Amino acid sequence: MVQTRPTTIPETRTGPISPPGSVSVARFSSLCTACHLCVSVCPSRILVPALLDYGLSGMLQPKMDFRSGHCNYDCKDCLEVCPTGAILPLSRENKQQAQVGVARFIKENCVVYTDNTNCGACSEHCPTKAVDMVHYLTLPDRDLLIPKVTPDICVGCGGCEYACPTKPYKAIYVDGNPVHRKAEKPVEKAVEQRIDTSEEFPF
Predict the structure, then answer these.
(1) 82-104: per-residue pLDDT in tens?
(2) Could you tell me if residue 36 is inside a domain?
(3) Tally of domains in the chain
(4) Backbone phi, then psi, for 78, in 5-degree steps?
(5) Distance from the CA of 6 to the CA of which of 27, 36, 56, 176 falls in 20 to 30 A?
(6) Are residues 130 and 151 in the same domain?
(7) Last residue of a domain, one of 58, 78, 98
(8) What is the C-alpha to C-alpha distance for residues 176 and 104, in angstroms, rounded to an integer?
(9) 169 lies in some domain
(10) Can you spell out the DSSP letters for 97-109?
(11) Are strands 131-138 and 143-149 parallel, antiparallel or unpaired?
(12) Among the three residues 81, 98, 115, which one is the final residue of a domain in this structure?
């Protein structure tokens, strides 16, 4: 997906995103020694040293950054190596419901809005389907779909932000939760299976 012109509305981030299991930004910053064990084991390379995101005393403490990847839904590597308790171990189920942040959508940056073209990369990369594509506009030759965020089931994994093709500002990004929350479990949609009973069975 190639946009025709640069995006103009910056992402408005209210603070850093601390790793799952850290409970809150304040708790994490008070216990983290910036040993970078979590950074070294992160397979997605999304844990990066912060500058002043946590304040002067939090220099080099890891934060989540989705420019180079996203937090793998099933991964617990960083939860199992922290020596200080800044990141607590979580079960896989609890990790998958740990809401470290929430996706925010900027319609004016989205290629669906700016270029009248379909995309959907954000929704395709969302493990909980907190980002869903809904009807936006009917054109003579096609229907356009645009992202819609359901905050309650978003875990802030960054899949949508990483996948979003717009530059320099993303159309969708994760804003960190100062205190982590528990996301609701996504509702699985039943798959309709239609059987044609008009035809005779070949036996």
Answers:
(1) 999 999 999 999 999 999 999 99
(2) yes
(3) 2
(4) -70, -25
(5) 176
(6) yes
(7) 98
(8) 10
(9) yes
(10) TEEEEEEEE-GGG
(11) antiparallel
(12) 98
DSSP single-letter state for residue 24: B
Instruction: Establish if 21 belongs to a structural domain.
Output: yes
Same-domain check for residues 158 and 117: yes
- C-alpha radius of gyration, the chain, whole number: 20
**Residues facing residue 133 across a β-bridge:** 147
* Statement to judge: residues 84 and 112 lie in one domain: no
Q: Which of 160, 92, 86, 88 is nearest to 121 (CA)?
A: 160
Q: What residues are paired with 147 via a beta bridge? A: 133
Beta-strand ranges (E) seen in 31-119 are: 47-49, 62-64, 98-105
Please indicate, yes or no, whether residues 93 and 151 belong to a single structural domain of this protein: no
User: 168: Cβ–Cβ under 8 A, 6 or more apart, which residues?
Assistant: 6, 7
Q: Which domain holds residue 88?
A: 15-98
Q: In terms of C-beta distances under 8 Å and separation of at least 24 residues, what long-range contacts does 36-39 make, across chains too?
A: 36/60, 36/62, 37/81, 37/82, 37/83, 38/62, 38/77, 38/78, 38/81, 38/82, 38/87
Give the pLDDT confidence score for residue 1 in this predicted structure.
Answer: 63
Q: What pLDDT is recorded for position 40? A: 97
pLDDT in the model for residue 186 = 84
Convert the pLDDT of each residue in 152-187 to its tens digit. Answer: 999 999 999 999 999 999 999 999 999 999 999 987
Query: Quick one: pLDDT at residue 202?
Result: 45
Q: Tell me phi and psi for residue 196, to 5 degrees.
A: -80, 110
